[in-house]
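Model it.
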Amino acid sequence: MSMEIKQLNRFFLLTTAPFIGLFLFMLIFHQPPKLPLNGEQLVPSKTLQSETALIKEQLEQADKTAKVTISSIRKTSTLYKQTTSTMSSIVTTAQVQAERPALIYNRRITNRLGVPYEQINTKRIRIELYKVNPGSYKGYAMKVKLKDPSAMQMSLGKDNLGGAETTMQAVQRLGATAGINAGGFADDGNKRYPLSTTVLNGQYLTGFQSSFKDLSFVGLDKTGKLIGGKFYNKQELDSLQPRFGATFVPVLLKSGQKMGIPEKWKVSPLRAPRTVIGNYKDDQLLIIVADGYNENGSSGATLQELQDKMYGLGVSDAYNLDGGGSSSLILNGRVVNKPSDGNLRPVPTHFVFYK
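Modeled.
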């Protein structure tokens, strides 16, 4: 309740308190006239007449007081309702004004994407799906507003270290509404292990590994903000309070600036199906999944093209996730992209989204 309304309530009590007190005083302390006992004659006396007159006078005065009190209460009640209505209007206007900059910013970044052809909007999350077709490749962009940080999680293949499952399997098993593939992996016999530093539920799965070569970490912190980059000691990453995250290569954008793409990753392969994730200044997420019919470098998008695309869409930070046959985008129970293997590839980590 606002301070103004609390003050008005106090005023209301102060206004009525004297009248209520007078009425209670009369009830408690007024002594009624003594009545005759066992056959005694009721004899009018000057005292009784005086008391009767006094009672009459007091009743008349109480009647006048009650009328004044009722009138005062009505006026105060009307003022209370008017003030409450005014304060509610002020609060509503303030909320609208406070949200206006965010709405303007969202409209600006959304206009660059076009018109979403599929949307999900709940109390926890807003998802908008767009088509991306700049000419050199085709793909899909998914803009995500996390109203509740817990609406995005990372899954581990079949909940086992070394396990793997497709993004569709992960989404269905966990009851999620959307999902994408996450970090890279290394095969060891029939096992697939997440590549390098991997955090799940705030815990390091296989310990912290200092960034080496071109690898970088990407995930979400405890408040639902995208975090990532190269970390050379555990304290650096711990300070960001990662809730979950995976590792791959390379970083595409940092604080709105293009990062240098290592020469190896420019041509190995040149083109490929790819999955990239980034965030806007207001912490909305943007995910682009580019289609490609093989992994030999002749179809899909280059990292330079996706870097330019994310930059042109106003993304602040962006990271490349695992690609090729691993690239996958699931929404509302269906596979949105066209996996280059012809089928979804089982991988150890996925980012999943809940209604």
